Structure formats: structure tokens, C-alpha cells
Amino acid sequence: xxxxxxxxxxxxxxxxxxxxxxxxxxxxxxxxxxxxxxxxxxxxxxxxxxxxxxxxxxxxxxxxxxxxxxxxxxxxxxxxxxxxxxxxxxxxxxxxxxxxxxxxxxxxxxxxxxxxxxxxxxxxxxxxxxxxxxxxxxxxxxxxxxxxxxxxxxxxxxxxxxxxxxxxxxx
Length: 171
Description:
The protein is elongated and about 55 Å long. Helix 4 links the parallel strand 3 (about 75) and strand 4 (about 100). Helix 3 (about 60-70) packs parallel to helix 4. The strands form two sheets. Strands 3-4-5 form a three-stranded parallel β-sheet, with helices on one face. Strands 1-2 form a two-stranded parallel ribbon. It is α/β, with parallel strands linked by helices. The protein is about 40% helix and about 15% strand.
């Protein structure tokens, strides 16, 4: 079921303070695009979109229980909350429709918007290699975010395929 296919009027889009630390700025292009898309769809469908900041120290089940008490009829989970098994389990048990915006693989039975981070990082690195670059740096992401590891693996795959090693100083 699509997040926007619900007949409900209230959606919750929780985001944790750690999203700020993962992306370094709460008003960055990534999160801004997610919000713009959500606001646009909510407006087109005349439904209410409520943003709920979730403290990463609050257990997932507690956060979801709070959203349910507030009347949530659907939840959009962005990184890193989309990786929370507790939150997904609680939402599923409560029969609350959920959509994930994630860099991880799709979850069976859950509406998911995702990117194959490993493939994307490999293709970006391959592009730089076709331009003649051989010593390419890689900035690692938050180790708790699934996409960070996948991006590094894609980078390393491309470097290995080109017969190049990845030195400590490059990462």
C-alpha cells in the first residue's frame, strides 16, 4: 500500500536529532527534498502532515506508542529510523501503514523508497576513473547508517576492479 493511498487524514513523519548529525545540517538538500515531497503530496491529497521529532534515546516502541496515541494513521520513517526493527515491529503489530525512505534493501510487505548505495557509489567511482583519476578519496558516513557501509563497498569494488588499492589515507 502506498503511503499516499491511505484514506486517512493524518500522517506522521518522525525524524531524529541524529538525522541532523548523519547529514550534518537539518536543512540540507536531502532532508529538504523529502519534506518538500511530503508537503506537496499532503497538499494535493488534502491531508494533514505532522512532523514528529523522535529522540534517538527514546526506545522505538515508546516513540511509536506516542505516535499512535496522537492518532497516527500512517508513518513515514527516514534514516536512520527506517533501520529500526523495534519501530517496524511495533508499527506492524499496531497495523499502522508505514513507508520507508531508506538506503537499505526493500522490506517485504512495506512500501519502500530506496537507492542501491553500493551500485551508486561504484558507478560514481567508475566515472571518476574514466576521467583518469586514480587516487580517489572517500569520506565515510555514520557507521550506524546502513548506507555508509554500502557506499564504501561500492567505492572499494570499483577501485579493485580497476586494479587499484584503497590506502588508509584515502578513507
